[in-house]
Design goal:
The structure holds two protein chains of two kinds.
Chain A lengths: L1 H17 L15 E3 L6 H18 L2 E7 L5 H11 L10 E7 L4 E7 L7 H16 L3 H17 L35 E3 L6 H18 L2 E7 L8 H11 L10 E9 L2 E9 L2 H4 L2 H16 L3 H16 L10 H30 L17 E18 L10 E7 L5 E8 L1
Parallel strand pairs in A: 1-2, 2-3, 5-6, 6-7
Antiparallel strand pairs in A: 3-4, 7-8, 8-11, 10-11
Helix pairs in contact in A: 2-5, 4-5, 6-10, 9-10
Chain B lengths: L23 E2 L6 E2 L1 H9 L4 E2 L2 E2 L17 E6 L5 E5 L14 E4 L10 E2 L6 H12 L12 H4 L3 E29 L3 E25 L6 H7 L19 E3 L5 H24 L5 E30 L2 E8 L5 E3 L5 H27 L1
Parallel strand pairs in B: 3-12, 4-12, 8-12, 9-11
Antiparallel strand pairs in B: 1-2, 5-6, 5-7, 6-11, 9-10, 9-12, 12-13, 13-14
Classes of the chains: A alpha/beta, B alpha/beta.
Chain lengths: 425, 360
C-alpha cells in the first residue's frame, strides 16, 4: 500500500512540475520576465513590464526577458543557463530575446534564442541602440527597458524571408495571415498600451482605472495606445484602426469603441482618435477638434499623462452625446473685448451724434413748401444714349487651406469602417 | 476759312477725333459715340446754370406806398436795430440782441406793409412751446430755459418779402443705368450713360425771404412755414405790445436767396420726374428762367430768444403763429459723456460676450 501511495505521489509531483513546461502554446506564464538584483526598479515597474511582456509574447509568439545584475565571468554561458533555468522562451524552439545588464560596470548585452536568432544585424543593432540611446537620453532604467522592449517587439513582428533580412515593418500586433483574419472580441485586454514608454507605472494604472470605469458606465471600449513608430503606415488612422481591430477591441456586434493613438516617431509625431461602431456618430469633427485644441499644448510640452487624462475627461462628455467644454481662451477673450469696445464706441458715437442733431435745427434750403400743386408740367424728356462701359472682376478661386488637423474616415486593413481625427505636432 | 469743331470724350475728357466708321472714337479709352449725341452733350455744358428772372420783382409796387403813422421808433445802441411800435408800448431791451435800446421819434416812420400775420402765440403759449421743444433734448443743460429768462422775451414782427414766380425752361441731367451679370470666371458691371433733357414748368407762391439784416437768415428760413391764409391788411393796432422791424434789404437784394431755394426745388422735382428707370441722375446744367414774378411786403410774427450758457449766447426763434422753435441748443458736456458711456459699456459687454461664445 505504501508503495503504491508513494508511486502515486511521485507521479503527481512529476506532473505538477511538468505542467509549466507544457503551458499554453509552449509558454511558461509563471515566471517573472523582469528581474532586478540591484534594486533599480520598483515593484510596480517590474509588475508593469512583466505584464506587458506576457501580453506581447502571445501575439508575437516570442519571449522577452530582462535581468539587471552584477558582473559575470562568462556572460554568454550565464545568459543561456539563466534563460533555460527560468523556463523562458516561446514555443518548442524557446524563442527569446534576453537583455542582460551588468549594472556594476554599466554594460549590457542582448542574447537571441530560437527564432530570434534570425534577427538581422541591423535589427539587432536597432534593439541595442534603442536601450542605449534611451538610457543615455536620461529616461532612466525603466524607460530604457521599455524602449528596448518596443524595439524588440517591432523587430519580432517583422516577417522574415528566411535569409534573416526583414522586408516590411510589421507591427507586433499584426496577424500572420491578415487575408483570413476573422473579427473577434479579445479577452482581458489592457486598455493602456504604452509601447513608447511615456508613462510611469502609476500613471498607467490610473489611466487603466479611469478607462475601466468609463467602459462600465458608457458601454464603449476605450484603449490608449502609444507607439514609437507607425510601422511605415502612411495613414496613422489606419495604423490605429488595425491595432484596435487585430487586438480584438470593441463592444457588441459592431465593435463600438475608440482608440486614442499617439505616435512619437520622428516626422510622424501626432495623435489620432479613431472610432468604431456607435462611437463614430458621437465623435464628430467638431467635437474632436475641441478635444484636439485642448490637448495640443500638453503634447507639445511633453505632458503625456495629463494629455491622456484630459482626453478621457473630454471623451466622457462625448460618450454622453454632449459637446466637450472648451478651455478658457485668453486670446479669444482679448479679441472679443476689442471687438465689443469698437462696436460699443461706434454705436455710442452714433447715438450721441443723433442726439446732437436734435439740438440743431436744419434750415429750410428749398422751396418745396411753396410749390403750387398741379402747376408743375413736364412737357418733354429727350433721352440721348452716350456710351457703355463694362468692368469685370475675376471670381475668387476657392483654395484649400493647409493645417495640422485631419478628420476623416476609412476602413482598417480588415475592412472595418472607422472615423476619427487628430493632429500632428 | 471753316471753323473746326472739336469735342471732348464724355468718359475721359480726351479729344475726340472722327473715325472711319463715321463715329467719334476716343483713342484713350476706346469708347465710340454718335456725332449727334456728343453735339447735344456739348450744348449743355456741365454746371451751366442760367436761372433768369424775367420781369421785375422790386419795390415798384411799393414805391408810392404809404408810410407808417402814429408809431414810435426805438434804436438799439448795440446792434443798431431800429424797431417801431405803437405809442403805448414801452420797450427797454432790443428784441434781437437783448441790449438796452433808446426811444427816439426823430426817425421817419417806415414803409407800410402789404399785410401782417398777427401773433397768435402769447407769453404763456411761448413758455409751453419752449418746454415742449426742450423736453426730449437729453443733452440740454439743466435749467437752460426757465420762465424767468423767458419773461424778458419780446415778440417782433420781422419784415419779409414774399415772392411769387413761375419757373420755365430746360435742364439737362447726367443719367446712367447699371447692370450686373456674371459667367463662370468673371463678375461684370455694365454702366450705360445717357443725357436727359427735361423741358417743363412749375410755379412757386409766397417764397419768403426776410428783409432785415438784423434777423438771422438761417433762423428766419427755419422758423417757417407760416399759414399765409391768415395774412390780414396791416393795422398799427397789431403792434401793441410788440415791435415791428424795418426792412433794410430790398427785394432786389433778397432775390438771390429766393433764386437758390426755387432752383433747388425745381431741380429736385424735374429730376424725380425724369429719372424713372435709371440707376442715378444728377444735374448737368440748368437753363430755366423765372417768369411772371411779383413780390409782397409782409410782417411775420417771431419771438427772438437770447439765452446765455457757458459764456456763449444762443439765439432762438419761435414762430409767433405756429409755436415752432428753431435754433442751435447748447450741449452739456457732462450729460454727453454720461450718455456716451451708458451706451458704449453695456453694448461692448454684450457684444464681447457674444463674440467670445461664437469664436471660442
Amino acid at each position: 500500500m505504501k508503495k503504491y501511495l508513494s508511486l502515486a505521489l511521485t507521479l503527481l509531483l512529476v506532473l505538477a512540475l511538468s505542467v509549466p513546461v507544457f503551458a499554453e502554446d509552449g509558454y511558461n506564464f509563471d515566471y517573472c520576465r523582469v528581474s532586478d538584483e540591484k534594486g533599480i526598479l520598483t515593484d510596480d515597474d517590474i509588475e508593469e513590464l512583466d505584464a506587458d511582456i506576457i501580453f506581447k509574447a502571445k501575439s508575437l509568439e516570442m519571449d522577452f526577458a530582462v535581468l539587471i545584475s552584477g558582473e559575470k565571468d562568462d556572460e554568454t554561458a550565464f545568459a543561456a543557463s539563466y534563460v533555460e533555468n527560468n523556463l523562458y522562451g516561446y514555443g518548442a524552439d524557446g524563442s527569446c530575446v534576453f537583455l542582460l545588464i551588468d549594472y556594476d560596470n554599466m554594460v549590457f548585452d542582448v542574447y537571441y534564442y530560437g527564432r530570434a536568432k534570425n534577427f538581422s544585424a541591423s535589427a539587432k543593432a536597432a534593439v541595442s541602440d534603442a536601450f542605449k540611446n534611451s538610457y543615455n537620453g536620461g529616461n532612466g532604467m525603466r524607460g530604457a527597458i521599455k524602449a528596448f522592449l518596443a524595439a524588440a517587439y517591432s523587430e519580432a513582428g517583422k516577417p522574415s524571408n528566411g535569409t534573416g533580412e526583414t522586408v516590411t515593418a510589421t507591427p507586433w500586433w499584426y496577424p500572420e495571415d491578415p487575408a483570413n483574419f476573422v473579427d473577434f472580441h479579445g479577452v482581458n485586454l489592457p486598455h493602456v498600451v504604452d509601447d513608447a514608454g511615456l508613462l510611469t507605472a502609476s500613471e498607467k494604472a490610473d489611466l487603466e482605472s479611469k478607462i475601466s470605469s468609463m467602459i462600465a458606465k458608457y458601454g464603449y471600449d476605450i484603449v490608449i495606445y502609444t507607439t514609437p513608430t507607425v510601422y511605415g503606415y502612411s495613414n496613422m488612422m489606419v495604423c490605429a484602426a488595425d491595432f484596435y481591430v487585430y487586438q480584438g477591441y470593441g463592444v457588441g456586434d459592431d465593435f463600438s469603441g475608440l482608440v486614442f493613438f499617439h505616435s512619437v516617431e520622428t516626422g510622424n509625431r501626432g495623435w489620432r482618435t479613431v472610432c468604431f461602431g456607435k462611437a463614430m456618430r458621437l465623435f464628430t469633427e467638431k467635437r474632436i477638434n475641441v478635444i484636439d485644441d485642448a490637448l495640443y499644448d500638453l503634447f507639445v510640452a511633453g505632458r503625456h499623462y495629463e494629455a491622456y487624462s484630459l482626453f478621457l475627461e473630454k471623451a466622457a462628455y462625448v460618450l454622453e452625446d454632449k459637446d466637450p467644454p472648451k478651455p478658457f481662451d485668453y486670446s479669444t477673450l482679448v479679441v472679443a473685448i476689442i471687438v465689443g469696445l469698437v462696436i460699443g464706441l461706434v454705436i455710442a458715437g452714433m447715438r450721441i451724434s443723433a442726439m446732437k442733431k436734435k439740438m440743431v435745427l436744419p434750415k429750410a434750403t428749398a422751396a418745396g413748401n411753396y410749390i403750387v400743386h398741379g402747376a408743375t408740367v413736364v412737357r418733354n424728356i429727350t433721352t440721348t444714349y452716350l456710351y457703355t462701359n463694362v468692368v469685370r472682376h475675376e471670381k475668387p478661386k476657392s483654395s484649400s487651406s493647409g493645417g495640422g488637423s485631419s478628420f476623416g474616415g476609412g476602413s482598417s486593413s480588415s475592412g472595418r469602417s472607422f472615423s476619427g481625427g487628430g493632429r500632428n505636432y | 476759312m471753316s471753323t473746326v469743331e472739336s469735342y471732348k470724350c464724355p468718359a475721359c475728357g480726351s479729344p475726340l477725333p472722327y473715325d472711319p466708321s463715321g463715329k467719334l472714337k476716343c483713342p484713350a479709352c476706346g469708347n465710340s459715340y454718335d456725332v449727334e449725341a456728343v453735339k447735344r452733350l456739348a450744348a449743355f455744358a456741365e454746371n451751366k446754370t442760367e436761372f433768369k428772372w424775367e420781369g421785375a420783382a422790386s419795390e415798384s409796387a411799393l414805391q408810392n406806398g404809404e408810410r407808417l403813422e402814429n408809431t414810435v421808433t426805438y434804436v438799439c445802441r448795440s446792434c443798431g436795430a431800429a424797431v417801431e411800435t405803437d405809442a403805448t408800448t414801452a420797450a427797454t431791451h432790443c428784441p434781437y440782441c437783448d441790449n438796452e435800446i433808446v426811444l427816439t421819434d426823430r426817425i421817419v416812420g417806415g414803409l407800410k406793409p402789404n399785410g401782417i400775420i398777427p401773433f397768435s402765440i402769447f407769453k404763456e403759449g411761448l413758455y409751453d412751446a419752449v418746454k415742449n421743444h426742450f423736453k426730449d433734448k437729453k443733452l440740454l443743460p439743466k435749467n437752460f430755459a426757465d420762465e424767468h429768462k423767458l419773461a424778458k422775451v419780446q415778440g417782433v414782427y420781422v419784415p419779409f418779402w414774399l415772392f411769387d414766380a413761375g419757373v420755365d425752361g430746360t435742364m439737362a441731367l447726367n443719367a446712367n443705368k447699371v447692370r450686373y451679370y456674371s459667367d463662370s470666371n468673371y463678375n461684370y458691371i455694365e454702366t450705360s450713360y445717357y443725357l436727359l433733357e427735361v423741358d417743363g414748368a412749375m410755379r412757386f407762391q409766397k417764397v419768403p425771404v426776410d428783409g432785415s439784416t438784423k434777423a438771422d437768415d438761417d433762423l428766419m428760413d427755419s422758423v417757417e412755414p407760416y399759414d399765409y391764409s391768415k395774412i390780414v391788411p396791416f393795422d398799427p393796432a397789431y403792434l401793441s405790445g410788440f415791435f415791428a422791424d424795418r426792412y433794410d434789404v430790398d427785394p432786389e437784394q433778397s432775390r438771390a436767396r429766393a433764386d437758390a431755394r426755387m432752383m433747388q426745388s425745381a431741380v429736385s422735382e424735374f429730376t424725380a420726374a425724369a429719372r424713372g428707370g435709371y440707376t442715378s441722375a444728377s444735374l448737368r446744367s440748368n437753363m430755366m428762367r423765372v417768369v411772371d414774378s411779383s413780390v409782397q411786403y409782409v410782417l411775420l410774427p417771431v419771438y427772438i430768444i437770447n439765452l446765455e450758457y457757458g459764456g456763449k449766447n444762443y439765439r432762438f426763434a419761435v414762430n409767433g403763429q405756429t409755436g415752432k422753435l428753431v435754433g442751435e441748443l447748447p450741449i452739456c458736456k457732462k450729460k454727453k459723456r454720461k450718455y456716451f458711456w451708458l451706451t458704449a459699456l453695456p453694448i461692448a459687454a454684450a457684444v464681447a460676450a457674444i463674440v467670445y461664445l461664437l469664436i471660442r
